[in-house]
């Protein structure tokens, strides 16, 4: 650990889009938020946030939770029974970065389908459905849009609609890990509903690119959300005067989506600068606000950049991730590019 006093001035924190600090408007909303006990359903800001997001995405109801991992795992619990399989794209957050919780909490296991650039094929998903008495039956199909580990890549609408058709034909529920679904909507140039309407439940993070300090919302039918209440409580996610958080999240929801296009432009600019400087970046995978570069000695390089005020995530020993967000402006990006390409 570097002592805080000796740390260089921060130029850009590109480790994740979760690192943003609440804006003055969010601080103000938090300080003045009317609150109530949300476990009794009495917090006006939580209720308003859930309703606003449900309206935006075309669902009957929503449920505020502390994290996207919790909204995903609650959705899995709602849709599945013990011993079933969840079909998901390789590299899916619900398995890769949620600590085996689908097994630990819901007693289900993942069945992966290949997903070049984060996009599984509907036919592969259909073929992965299992029903025989000798196999663990499929309980759920789960997609991720944008796909984090594939590089913030987007599933096209045509594929989403085919996935819906597969789910309908097989009688299976379809969940979206939409932590960054607003980034996907911006990239596709469509209203977010065009994406969310294909799913039975959608999990949305307010604390990624939208910029809220904390929180995610699970969206679904009134019945699904009634069940979700029970699992949220089991996981310790009943948060009482959570309106302080929801008030900030409501500001994020109002102001965040319109800013994402700028994040995507800056991401392209950084990716091109990295490629020109000889970095190994697959530009086809750079579609929204995330860049992965293959880089020998990634940890040592990231530590050296940190000494100069640019933070990135070293993942394993040969890969590094850069994520853009609204608190890296053009000026900060120029300075960061100088450090990264020196
Ligand atoms: C960040 C993220 C989540 C949720 O992460 P939390 O840290 O639990 O909020 C879920 N899915 C994807 C794809 C993510 O990137």
TrEMBL record:
Q: Name one Pfam family in it.
A: Beta_elim_lyase
Cofactor(s) listed in the protein's UniProt record: pyridoxal 5'-phosphate
Under the heading InterPro entries, the entry gives: ArAA_b-elim_lyase/Thr_aldolase, Low_specificity_L-TA-like, PyrdxlP-dep_Trfase, PyrdxlP-dep_Trfase_major, PyrdxlP-dep_Trfase_small
N6-(pyridoxal phosphate)lysine occurs at: 208
Keywords, A to Z?
A: Lyase, Pyridoxal phosphate
SUPFAM superfamilies recorded for this chain? PLP-dependent transferases
Q: State any single GO MF term.
A: L-allo-threonine aldolase activity
- Cite the Aromatic amino acid beta-eliminating lyase/threonine aldolase domain residue spans from the record: 13-293
Report the record's Gene Ontology biological process terms: glycine biosynthetic process; L-threonine catabolic process
Keyword Lyase applies? yes
GO annotation, cellular component aspect: cytosol
Q: Which domain of life is it from?
A: Bacteria
**What does the record list as coiled-coil region(s)?**
none
| UniProt family annotation | Belongs to the threonine aldolase family.
Under PANTHER family, the record lists: L-THREONINE ALDOLASE (PTHR48097:SF9), L-THREONINE ALDOLASE-RELATED (PTHR48097)
Q: What is this protein called?
A: L-allo-threonine aldolase
């Amino acid at each position: 650990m570097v002592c805080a006093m000796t740390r260089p001035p921060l130029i850009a924190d590109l480790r994740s889009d979760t690192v943003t600090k609440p804006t003055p408007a969010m601080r103000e909303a938090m300080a003045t938020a009317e609150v109530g006990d949300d476990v009794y359903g009495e917090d006006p800001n939580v209720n308003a946030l859930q309703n606003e997001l449900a309206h935006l995405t075309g669902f009957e109801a929503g449920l505020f939770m502390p994290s996207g991992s919790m909204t995903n795992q609650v959705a899995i619990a709602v849709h599945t029974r013990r011993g079933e399989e969840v079909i998901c794209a390789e590299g899916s957050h619900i398995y890769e970065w949620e600590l085996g919780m689908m097994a630990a909490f819901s007693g289900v296991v993942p069945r992966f389908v290949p997903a070049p650039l984060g996009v599984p094929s509907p036919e592969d998903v259909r073929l992965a459905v299992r029903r025989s008495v000798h196999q663990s039956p499929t309980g759920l199909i789960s997609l991720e849009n944008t796909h984090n580990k594939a590089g913030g890549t987007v599933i096209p609408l045509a594929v989403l609609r085919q996935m819906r058709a597969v789910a309908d034909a097989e009688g299976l529920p379809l969940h979206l890990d939409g932590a960054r679904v607003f980034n996907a909507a911006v990239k596709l140039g469509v209203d977010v509903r065009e994406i969310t309407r294909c799913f039975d439940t959608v999990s949305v993070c307010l604390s990624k690119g939208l910029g809220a300090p904390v929180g995610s919302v699970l969206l679904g039918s009134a019945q699904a959300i009634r069940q979700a209440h029970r699992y949220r409580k089991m996981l310790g996610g009943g948060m009482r005067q959570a309106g302080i958080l929801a008030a900030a999240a409501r500001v994020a929801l109002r102001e965040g989506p319109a800013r994402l296009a700028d994040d995507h432009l800056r991401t392209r600019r950084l990716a091109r600068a990295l490629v020109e400087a000889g970095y190994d970046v697959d530009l086809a995978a750079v579609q929204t606000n995330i860049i992965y570069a293959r880089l020998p000695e990634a940890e040592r390089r990231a530590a050296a950049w940190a000494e100069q005020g640019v933070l990135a995530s070293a993942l394993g020993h040969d890969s590094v991730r850069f994520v853009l967000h609204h608190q890296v402006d053009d000026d900060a990006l120029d300075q960061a590019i100088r450090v990264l390409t020196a």
